[in-house]
Amino acid sequence: MSETKKTEKIVAIKGMNDILPADAPLWELFENTAETILKSYGYQKIVTPIVEETRLFARAIGAVTDIVEKEMYSFEDSMNGDQLTLRPEGTAGVVRAVIEHNLAYDGPKRLWYKGPMFRHERPQRGRYRQFFQFGAEAIGFSGPDIDAELIMLCRRLWDDLGLEGIRLELNSIGNAEERNRHRADLIAYFEANIDQLDEEAKRRLHANPLRILDTKNPKMQDLVNQAPKLLEYLGEESLAHFEGLKKILDANNVQYTVNPRLVRGLDYYNRTVFEWVTDALGAQGTVCAGGRYDPLIETFGGKATPGVGFAMGIERLIELMKAAGEPAAPSQCDVYMVHQGQEAQMRAFILAERLRDAGLDVVLHCATPQGAGSFKSQMKKADASGAAFAVILGDDEVANNVAAVKALREGEEGQQQTSVPFDNVVDFVVDQIVGHDHDHDHVHYHA
């Protein structure tokens, strides 16, 4: 007796997740809210490729960083030998596009983007190998006012999404000269205490000592807390910029903590750096981070142009939205079309299109491998869809050139069923929907 060989099931790559229909409403709520806020501040959408030249990220992020050294998905183009990388972050591509298309030629630009990023990290709650970022970049603005605007934009997003417990941490990392003076003292300090450094810190000591301050090793916390603080090395201009930022935030009641250990993981930052953090996601507490990157555009070969921006991980914010109380899943439609019989099916298609022409969302019942389904089973599906009304067509309705319209929700005239002439169904349903004071968010009628 032979056994039928079972086909092996293919599953998603580790750390790369499906967004299922049950979660789609939360994603849509986040994206719609964020896009509305960005637009209200004058930001315009930009879309850049998922794949860029590897050297773009090596130059922008810094060769001696975890992202470039360990986490990038890089490969050689088999057609021409180009070294390519799936983007690990959004800023580098946006800046490349700004330079390539001379976007800042006619003045400063406020830009926003969203899309998938890729890093080969250990998957954790809210942190994946393919993850989605929402970000904003303000190119060509030099003052602390634009830094404050981006921070206040984030606060408005948290408020509109109903998210609480997200704290703002601020720091200034000055300019290159100030960081170099601090760097020399920092190296000397850590060299004097080299026996307390872990292997990762020793590796970074001369290549990128600032990143040692960001260590999560509990045994090194006292050491880094006593290390020279970059804020003490800032010159007059950098201090004035930082004080200007804090003054605007204070005037607008934006609460913050100055964190002298906040350095950010990317080499292109200068002056303002900030993070929005929460205790609700375990170790992955940062939900949004950003800062100023004035040297970056010139590093890419463009004309010296200041820039500042932020990026937020959408998955982490979705986790917070769920914790804050996931909203009820919105209805699939306004009207569910129930029908039985070949002629009724033809008429149901015609009526469904007319209802959609009127601006309503309509689900038309279609057959499954089990068959078309009885009226009773179709009505169960109509009720489960969340529709406000079912429009019913059978042999009797076809013979009399009518359709039955049944209210499915409580309060809809006692969920009564009404026989309506076929050519009057659209006007009748629209009048029912817009003529009542509904609380149904699924109604999208537009005249």
From TrEMBL:
The molecular function terms of the Gene Ontology recorded here are:
histidine-tRNA ligase activity
In the UniProt record, the gene name given for this protein reads hisS
In terms of one coarse class, where is the protein primarily found? cytoplasm
Q: What is this protein called?
A: Histidine--tRNA ligase
Name where it's found. Cytoplasm
For this protein, the record's InterPro entries field holds: aa-tRNA-synth_II, aa-tRNA-synth_II/BPL/LPL, Anticodon-bd, Anticodon-bd_dom_sf, His-tRNA-ligase, HisRS-like_core, HisRS/HisZ, HisRS_anticodon
| Positions of the Aminoacyl-transfer RNA synthetases class-II family profile domain | 1-330
Stored NCBIfam families: hisS
